[in-house]
Amino acid sequence: MTTDDGPALLSALVIAARAGDQAAWAELVARFWGMALRVARGQLGSRAGAEDVVQEAFVGAFQHLGELHDPPAFTAWFERILHTHCDRVTRKPGRQALLAAAGVETILGLSDGSGLEAANTAVGLLQGLPVSQRVVLCLYAMGYSQNEVAAIVGVPLTTVKKRLHDARQRLRRERQARFARIVREEPGSHRPGIASWAHALRNELDCLPAGEIAARVTTIPVGRHPGGVGLDFATDRAFVVNSAVGTPAGSVSVIDGSRLQVIAVAPTLRQPRCIAVDPQRERLYLTHYFGRTVVVLDTESLHPLASVALAGNPVGIDLHPDTGRVYVATMADGDQGGAFAGVEVIDPATNHVCAAVPVGHQTPSASGPVCVRVNPLVDQVYVSGCHPGAVTVIEAAANAVVADCALNQVHALAVDPPAHRVYAASYADGVLAVLDADTATVLATVPELDNVAGLEVDPVAGRLYLSQPGAVRVLSTVTLQTLCLVPLGSSSCLTTGSLGGLCLNPLTQQLYCSQQQADVVYVLDQWVR
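The chain above was modelled as a monomer; its predicted structure follows.
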């Protein structure tokens, strides 16, 4: 097993560049250019302006590279430089009002060239935010933890939390007022119909029809029967769980996101299923359904650190990026020793279950939730189940159920924090439901989406990704219309969403899709219109 392509390589590149190695510096620029461009574009709203700022930031970083005494800290150090350059541009006279609209245009995924006329009608939820709040919200929605946002922006953690809280409260009030205007009940229905909802929303946004988009597809052979995929944004690595059904041990494959190739493989427990990654604490969490355990690994060495015993059989898993708490959806499978159906919460400080929230029927009949997703922006957890079928909202601080919605066999969930939405795919009914993140009220449904096994959402690009047999479907989060259908090399269904087999890196827009039957992971990137 090798780990030279992780933080160790980053440190080596920084040290070499600091000593005058131009090739090492060029490699650093190549690795961080895409991330820097997305962060700058999210703050400035203009691709051309973002490219100029990114170039200036790299020049400034090169000039001051000798002042970086901790090479592993290059990522946060460079992001602070980038933010300083962005902040200088936003403080120019007359720029802040322009950026308030343009930044929202980027978040909502409106295409370049639609202009501020479209943005001015689209920014009802975000337009009034101060630039300081909008920057923090953008970074947080892109996957950075609150500590990382504080380091990038250069303010105390308490300031980040206050700005997120204020932005969240303001957006909630604006969102409620907007939906009260645009959502209309269809006659004889107790929920908003997709036709009236989408029509009203398109009129409200004055959105131009989206053109078709396409993507490059890279096929990466991994271990046997790949399942869950987890991402480390800081090092641009993907971790793939290979269950290797029928063998005494599974494995974890590590993919370098920049080179799109496997750089390490390590054996692990028998038939692992799901994975969650905590980059800040450098931990991986793997679920073992038959052993009713979650195994904790070190992200660098892939050596086991702990094994957490559960009351139920684990299926889905997700992690809160700030608290580090791990939320595991467990089933009461009497045949496999499971006696609890619900969500079990693991404390990262003790590696023990610190709370358990019952969800579904507590019967030994393989019932309970199968998928779990965390919304760190509002500290809520969403779980979906098969028996009975429902989407349940849990308040993370209180570990208590606050809302639920009856939906049939939801195998996949995706959370869009800025839009305050949850997407739920019913595998049996072929229906995609759009839910309110607080109340789980159905806002819209999209029918005739058969065999959806996984969901992912990109809040910045405004895209929703659905894995279906032999393809990935891309929808607009604004209109819920199909933007494109990307064919893959196998007609078999991709790994179900409860296993986390569909995973997006929002910084690089790389979408990882595991395929159990073909023993490969597909990576979709280089999206073009």
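Residues 409 and 488 are 25 Å apart (CA to CA).
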